[in-house]
Automatic annotation (TrEMBL):
Domain CRAL-TRIO: 99-193
Protein name: MCF.2 cell line derived transforming sequence-like 2
Source species: Phyllostomus discolor (pale spear-nosed bat)
Biased composition range(s): Polar residues: 550-567
CDD domains hit by this protein: SEC14 (cd00170), SPEC (cd00176)
Positions of the DH domain: 616-708
Entry keyword Signal: no
Record-linked InterPro entries: CRAL-TRIO_dom, CRAL-TRIO_dom_sf, DBL_dom_sf, DH_dom, RhoGEF_Guanine_NuclExch_SF, Spectrin/alpha-actinin, Spectrin_DBS
Length: 708
């Protein structure tokens, strides 16, 4: 079975390529010139007694600055040598070959410090010197001593380069451009020593890590190449897993190293990125070039190792592909067959909303249960296609199995969708039936809650008709279907039980709509019989409506407080309306006659039937009595219909919070008015019937009592 294996990339080739990478890293970091690293001399570097600011002379010579440093004479020779050696090895070979420019700032120091600086530079400076500038002490005596000392000790310093004494930074700027001098020397060059140290240490750490990684990959490649292939499948799987884990670890390290390099490069380039006017100084440009070259070596390392690994992985992997595929195929096919069997047993579509919702939950669980084998089957089919496309030797065996997997997946998905659609249709059906039933119940409740005595006036009839019209309008809002539309929509899922329930609900819908039609006809007939232009307000506790008029609030049709039998109650209500209509008609013929007072019939009024028999004064008394009795009757109806029911516990929820236990705020002293007119003033007016002369005294007496 090994005839199909490709020849593995020679480990010697991997070793050669990675060794080249290592050599290039050493060249980039000038390891043969500078064995020191910044981290090795980090403490002397932080003391900042010498810096490589990045400035350049007029001919491009690197500038090393010795800033003012109080303890310069006490710096150990080893630290001084290490720092200047490190600083001189950083510029490129081309820049270093020009020679270094030294700037010694001793404006606040003494001649002794200048002498110590020159002595150490003469003895220990490892680079090629071009020129030395000294900012001499600013105090007169020390400046004079420096001038004399330089002339006297010049031969002792053994300097072969010019030493130029400067009195001020303006003199220095005559030799070096301001843009190449740091701010403490009056220049504009931005230099942050801590940032410079961070960049140098980061670059060197990156280079060292890259070199170590390349060497580690060399060792790993040699180990893989010398490993013998096991004969058994479990052993091969274990070996492949072990090698893959090691490869993944190394790959992650390479990836992390690449991210670190990109981040470091971005940090170095950050000043120029933030401001278009900013430019990187030569040191920063060299750092950028160094990082770019190191990243190129990282890419080469990754390419070499990836090529080697791909061939090694292929050597192990195809030995296991067919066995894994066939084993997974048997497992997935069994799971899909079981899933199809469970779907075939799922036949119930429910007989109520609750039952259908429960079935939908069960179906969802079944669908979720089958999701894993479906995904496995789809993934396995894709893997099989990949084997075929990679010219696997068993492609003829893999191809029909992939087709079988896709057929089973399609069957499962289609069956799931079919069952879900069927349950969704069933849920819609039962919700429609429930909605129709609730609408019918709310309609019956509305008809039952319309008070008969409210329909004795044209306004009451109009309100009732408007309530009915608004309620019937909600049939469109809730999209109540006709029987024909209903059966056409749900014909496919109507089982005998569901069809029987649907017939009952739709029959009920038709009956309720017919009752509403009859009620409308009755109310319209009753409205046509109304003859009195104004009807008295006659509130009663038993007539408080439970259906709220749409003029004041939106009707609630989905949750009536109690169920009411449809036809008997409504028919009785219609009969009551017709009887009330006849009564209203009878009262219309006799509305000029006041039939009785609060305490019974008045024989005195019955004797005044004929207007021709009454004198003008008796006409006035009769009108006063009729008006007074009507006034008393109206106050009585308000007390009985509104004030008294406000104390009923079962009506408390109908009273606004602001009126709870606050009847006097709304009705005032209406009880006292009622008692006065009913018990006192009406009786006094009745006494004036036989003796009209007492009428004026009756009113005058009440006026005088009120004024007191």
């Amino acid at each position: 079975m090994l005839f199909w294996l490709k020849e593995e990339m020679a480990p010697q080739e991997l070793t050669r390529r990675l060794a080249t990478v290592t050599t290039h890293i050493d060249e980039i970091m000038q390891q043969e010139i500078r064995p020191l690293l910044a981290v090795d001399i980090i403490e002397p570097l932080h003391r900042q007694f010498a810096i490589l600011s990045g400035g350049r002379g007029k001919d491009g010579a690197p500038i090393i600055t010795f800033p003012e440093f109080v303890g310069f004479r006490h710096i150990p020779d080893e630290d001084f040598l290490n720092v200047v050696t490190y600083l001189t090895s950083i510029p490129s070979v081309e820049a270093a070959s020009i020679g270094f420019v030294i700037v010694i700032d001793r404006r606040r120091d003494k001649w002794s410090s200048v002498k110590a600086s020159l002595t150490r530079i003469a003895v220990a400076f490892p680079g090629n010197l071009q020129l030395i500038f000294i900012l001499r002490p600013s105090r007169f005596i020390q400046r004079t001593l420096t001038d004399i000392g330089i002339k006297y000790y010049r031969d002792e310093f053994k300097m072969k380069v010019p030493i130029i004494l400067l009195s001020s930074i303006s003199d220095l700027q005559g030799y070096i451009d301001k843009s190449q001098l740091t701010e403490d020397l009056g220049g504009t060059l931005e230099y942050r020593h801590s940032q410079w140290i961070n960049h140098r240490t980061a670059i060197e750490n990156f280079a060292l890590t890259l070199k170590t990684t390349a060497q580690m990959l060399q060792t790993f490649g040699a180990h893989l190449a010398t490993t013998e292939l096991p004969r058994g499948v479990p052993s091969t799987e274990e070996l492949l897993l072990s090698h893959t884990r090691q490869r993944d670890k190394l790959r992650d390290e390479l990836k992390l190293l690449g991210e670190q390099g990109a981040t470091l490069l971005a940090c170095i380039q950050d000043p120029a990125t933030k401001s278009p006017t900013s430019k990187l100084n030569p040191n920063e440009l060299e750092n950028v070039a160094t990082m770019e070259r190191l990243l190129v070596q990282l890419d080469e390392t990754e390419r070499a190792f990836t090529q080697f690994w791909s061939e090694h992985h292929l050597k192990l992997n195809q030995c296991l592909q067919l066995q894994h595929f066939e084993h997974s195929f048997c497992e997935v096919k069994l799971a899909l067959d079981n899933l199809l069997a469970e779907q075939a047993e799922f036949t119930d579509i429910g007989d109520s909303v609750i039952r259908v919702e429960q079935l939908l939950k069960e179906h969802k669980k079944l669908r979720e249960k089958g999701q894993e084998p479906l995904e496995k089957a789809q993934l396995l089919a894709i893997i099989g296609d990949q084997h075929i496309q990679s010219h696997h030797y068993a492609a003829d065996s893999i191809r029909p199995k992939c087709a079988e997997l896709r057929r089973l997946c399609a069957d499962c998905v289609n069956e799931n969708k079919k069952k879900y659609d069927l349950l969704g249709k069933s849920l819609e059906l039962h919700r429609q039936l429930d909605k129709v039933s609730q609408w019918c119940e709310a309609g019956i409740y509305l008809l039952a809650s319309q008070a008969v005595d409210k329909c004795q006036s044209r306004e009451g009839v109009d309100v009732s008709l408007n309530d009915i019209q608004v309620f019937l309008g909600t049939a469109k809002e809730y999209q109540l279907p006709s029987s024909k539309e209903f059966y056409h929509q749900f014909e496919l899922i109507l089982t005998p039980d569901v069809e029987a329930r649907a017939q009952r609900v739709l029959q009920k819908l038709g009956d309720v709509q017919e009752i509403f039609h009859r009620r409308q006809m009755s109310l319209m007939k009753l409205a046509a019989r109304q003859t009195r232009p104004v009807q008295p307000v006659a509130p009663h506790p038993e007539s408080s409506p439970k259906w709220v008029s749409p003029k004041t609030s939106q009707p609630s049709i989905l949750a009536p407080p109690q169920k009411t039998s449809e036809q008997p109650y409504v028919e009785a209500d219609l009969n009551s309306l017709e009887k009330e209509a006849d009564k209203t008609k009878f009262e219309g013929k006799n509305e000029e006659i006041l039939e009785g007072s609060h305490n019974g019939e008045k024989p005195e009024l019955e004797q005044l039937d004929g207007p021709e028999n009454l004198s003008p004064s008796r006409h006035i008394i009769r009108d006063l009595l009729e008006t007074e009795e009507a006034y008393i009757k109206e106050m009585k109806s308000i007390i009985d219909g509104y004030i008294t029911p406000m104390d009923f516990i079962w009506l408390k929820h109908l009273i606004p919070d602001i009126l709870q236990n606050n009847k006097d705020f709304l009705f005032g002293n209406i009880r006292e008015l009622y008692e006065f007119h009913n018990r006192t003033f009406l009786k006094e007016l009745e006494k004036c019937t036989e003796n009209p002369e007492l009428l004026a005294r009756c009113f005058l007496q009440r006026v005088s009592l009120c004024s007191q």
